[in-house]
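User: Before I run my own analysis I want an independent prediction to cross-check against. Here's the chain; please return only the structure tokens and, at the end, one sentence I can use as a sanity check.
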Amino acid sequence: MLKGFPDLPPIWLLATMAVSWAIGRAVPHLDPGAPGRWIGAALVAAGLGLILWSALFFLRHRTPIEPHHTPTALITGGPYRLTRNPIYLALVLIAAGFALRQGSALALLPVPALFLVLDRRFAAVEEAGLRAAFGAAGEAYIARSRRWL
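Assistant: Structure tokens:
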């Protein structure tokens, strides 16, 4: 990572979207058509809704939402019953939806890279943080929940 560069999931999302946009402009002939655009809009809306729902739980529990901060509460309700990483899942949904709206199926190519970055650089590291911060309770939550879906 570049020194001083904010290593945050939304920055990775923006980079992914920029690459998808560039691909969509360079290779527009593989257009998924109107259904692809509608599905893309639905995925973006679902992702934004999931982020808001998830963020409410951080606010309610008064624990930091930033990935590089130590959690002060173990959140296991709401979207966290379904996945340990609903915000990262939402970012992938937004990236996929945005890509579908670019007029080229090839614009989806950067989305798996975003998934891998979020999985390895953030989700896996946060699981270690949950274990360190919450011990057996964190381990139990990790054992009974899925990292993604």
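Sanity check: The helical segments are 9-26, 33-61, 86-100, 111-144.
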